[in-house]
Design goal:
By secondary structure, this protein is mainly alpha-helical. About 80% of the residues lie in helices and about 0% in strands. The chain has helices at about 5-35, 40-65, 70-85, 95-115.
Length: about 120
């Protein structure tokens, strides 16, 4: 596998991780908004929304091979880390699923960012 093919494979994996994370964050925020403890979940909801938006933008940057996609991956990894940390504090299945998805996405984004360094 050439370096270009290897990088393309990392990017494709990362785009998939971003979309999976986006979906899981949207589901988590929706579940939190519809819970009877919504006031206690405001930070979780906010971080899920940040992560969702960042994942979408990151996937778009990678899809069009933007010159800024490595930097966007670093930002996305940070957003995912913050969301995973918050969701990891909660015992709901949707929060656990979201935290795991955020960790996978952060790892994948860091691999892409590192490959571009």
């Amino acid at each position: 596998m050439t370096t270009a093919q290897s990088h393309q494979s990392l990017v494709e994996t990362c785009i998939e991780a971003c979309f999976n994370c986006l979906r899981d964050c949207e589901n988590c925020a929706d579940a939190c908004l519809n819970s009877n403890m919504v006031q206690m979940m405001t930070q979780c909801i906010k971080l899920c929304q940040d992560c969702t938006d960042t994942c979408a933008l990151c996937a778009r940057f990678m899809s069009r091979n933007s010159a800024l996609h490595a930097q966007m991956c670093e930002i996305c990894a940070e957003a995912c880390d913050r969301c995973a940390s918050e969701c990891g504090k909660h015992d709901n299945d949707h929060c656990k699923r979201c935290a795991a998805s955020c960790r996978r996405c952060a790892d994948s984004c860091r691999q892409v960012a590192t490959a571009m360094a």
